[in-house]
Amino acid sequence: MSEFIDVDVRPILRAGGEPFSIIMAALDRLAPGQGLRLYAPFKPVPLFDVMASKGFAHQEAELEGGEWEIRFMPVGSFEAAEPAPAALADGDWPEPVVHLDNRDLDPPEPMVRILAAAEQLAPGQTLSALLSREPVFLFRELTKRGHQWRGGFTPQKDVYQLTVRVLA
Amino acid sequence: MIGTSLCKWAISYFAAAIVWLLLAEVLMVAGFGFPNDDIGGPDTLVIVHMVCIGWLSMVVCGALFQFVPVLVARPLYAERWTLPALALLTLGLTILLAGFLALGGHINGPRWLLPVGAGLLIAGFVLVVANLGMTLWLARPLPGPARFAAVGLACICVTAAFGGMFSLVLSGAAVAARWPELLVSGVPIHAIAGLGGWLTFTAMGVSYRLLAMFMLAPDSDARLGRLAWLAGAAALAVGVVGGVLALWRATGLNLVLLVAGAAALLSLIAYGHDVLGLYRTRKRRALELNTRMSILSLASLAAVAILGAALLATGSFQPHVGALVFLVAFGWLTGLVLANLYKIVPFLTWLEAYGPVMGRVPTPRVQDLVAERRATKWFVLFFAGSWAATLMLLVDAALGFRVALAVVTLATLGLGEELIRARRLADVAEPLRLPTGAAVPHLLISRN
Predict the structure, then answer these.
(1) C-alpha distances in angstroms, B228 versus A97, B68, B265, B268, B269?
(2) Strand A98-101 relative to strand A126-131: parallel, antiparallel, unpaired?
(3) Residues whose CB is less than 8 angstroms from the CB of residue B82 and which lie 6 or more positions away in sequence, other chains included
(4) Please, are residues A73 and A56 in contact by the beta-carbon 8 Å criterion?
(5) Can you give the pLDDT at residue B332?
(6) With an 8 Å Cβ cutoff, is A64 touching chain B?
(7) Which of B344, B291, B216, B372 is closest to A106 using CA atoms?
(8) What is the pLDDT of residues B38-77, one digit of tens each?
(9) CA of B351: which chain A residue's CA is closest?
(10) Which residues are CB-neighbours of B226 under 8 A, at least 6 positions away?
(11) A131 in reach of chain B (CB within 8 A)
(12) Which of A39, A139, B116, B246 gives 20 to 30 Å between its CA and that of B291?
């Protein structure tokens, strides 16, 4: 038995299709202890919660061209798997302390509020924000301040979900 | 995505562009070139190239360097190529204009001025196209607005190639004697690819994203802009490829232009429909000045479509083509560019000045960098002057055209001053203006 079942949703999304049901169908085919390796054109952040609720932890790796390889494994089996690459070794981030919904704010107000909220956090804490666009100019400020972030569009492409972790 | 940084030289492109615009306007007020001179004469060519290369192309290049990375969520391929490109374009245009002035007998100059100027301009545009082209290529599949920019980049290549050949013909090079028809039949292709493909089509594409961004309108539907793009790309392909074929077989261009014109009209109608949709579905009810003034430039574009169709239908296209081109260059393109610069320059300045301290201390809003009420009168003067000047060209009133252009020039000066004031943070109220850690940006260069 191979360790992972591979699911590549890139062609489905490119064709305008809906990949969620295909991922769920693949889950049903998994043997005990087997993982799911997902290839996606963006980081499927909303899927992480769904998979966590089904008992799967994940490791993520950015591929060339902004695409992502995500490995979902039943919780507890990562230790037995190959060691995680160094870039992913920072482990899972803590639950967000602050939740912002900045979808209906006039630009660049979403950016101002996220930076202001980040200033209030203790080192290592995280905040999450919902946005209507990818905040490309915010990333520049986050980088300068040494903060980390994870983000991606929902499959419907109408909400950008961002998590920021303040410099530890 | 590692985030978009500020393009260091975008503001320099904008500044150089505004200087060229003012220079061209002053010359027109002084009565230089069309309508006093022949529409194809060397003096008119000076003005046309000042406006289309010096002003419009420079400003579009600067805006694309800053916003193509935003459109495709990728960094610019080679930031270090942007300054050499600016230098090549500026030097090339200066020498090209000297060549036209020599052709018109205003100065004594050698014949090689035109081909050398054209060569430097082509080199500059090659750097621009390679840089933006690689950025787009690495971002495939392209989102809608970026596809418009890709077609625009292909069109500037066609425009530059024809321009290079014309410069050889006009300088009397032996090689040019083999294509005696080139200048007559090639000029429409040069103009369609330049004004229609490179400038108009690119502006249409970028405006989809900018309007949606500034008005908080949903633009995630992949179908948005598709018909406008397909019809427009078809119009340009028919115009350019058909034009070249017609040239080669030395037959008339009329059928090609008619088909291309019909497709272009369809594209403009689809674009107008899309833009009205964006205005209707916007979440931001109160519009800012840049968006309101963009409406006036879009009205000019609609007027271009109506006027163009009417002139074609009544068979009076040829005598009035100057008025139509002026309306494209000023009412539509210059109006749209000025309206958007009025948003882009304060935004980039705000990001540069207050980004480092944002969230740590109170900072002004982007709107605090501008005084909309003061700028409104300059915009009103600009559009009124541009429309009046078009009207004067239609009724062959040369003096009236110059008076209207004087109003346009005054408005341009006023808007230029507003942009400088924004850059200097001159309108920001004092307690917020310079918190500790913030600095006034350089007038012409962005620091990252």
Answers:
(1) 45, 19, 10, 7, 8
(2) parallel
(3) B7, B8, B9, B10, B13, B65, B76, B131
(4) yes
(5) 96
(6) no
(7) B216
(8) 888 999 999 999 999 999 999 999 999 999 998 888 889 9
(9) A137
(10) B144
(11) no
(12) A139
Q: What is the C-alpha separation between B22 and B12, in angstroms, rounded?
A: 16
How far is B269 from B253, CA to CA, in rounded Å? Answer: 24
Q: Which two tokens stand for residue B252?
A: 């008339």
Give the pLDDT confidence score for residue A137 in this predicted structure. 87
**Domain residue ranges in chain A:** 4-88, 98-165
Q: With an 8 Å Cβ cutoff, is A28 touching chain B?
A: no
CA distance B272 to B266: 10
Give the residues of chain A that fall short of pLDDT 70: 1-2, 76-91
CATH architecture of residue range(s) A4-88: 2-Layer Sandwich (3.30)
Give the residue ranges of chain B where pLDDT is below 50: 1
H helix and E strand count, chain A = 5, 8
Asked casually if ipTM beats, i.e. exceeds, 0.95, the reply is no
Strands A148-153 and A160-165: antiparallel
State in words which class domain A98-165 has: alpha beta
Task: Using a CB–CB cutoff of 8 Å, tell me whether A38 touches chain B.
Answer: no
Say yes or no for a CB contact (<8 Å) between B359 and A118: yes
Report the C-alpha gap between B37 and A24 in whole angstroms: 72
Q: Cα dist. A60→A70, A73, A87, B103 in Å? A: 4, 11, 10, 64
Shortest distance between the Cα of B294 and any Cα of chain A, in A, equals: 18
DSSP 8-state class, residue B441: P
Place of tokens 């006023």: B414
Amino acid letter for position B331: G
Give the residue from B278, B358, B367 with the most A CB atoms within 10 Å of its CB, the best one to mutate: B358
pLDDT at A79: 44
Task: Report yes or no: A41 and B48 within 8 Å, Cβ to Cβ.
Answer: no
Amino acid at B145: P
Q: Looking at the complex, does the CB of residue B374 fall below 8 Å from at least one CB of chain A?
A: no
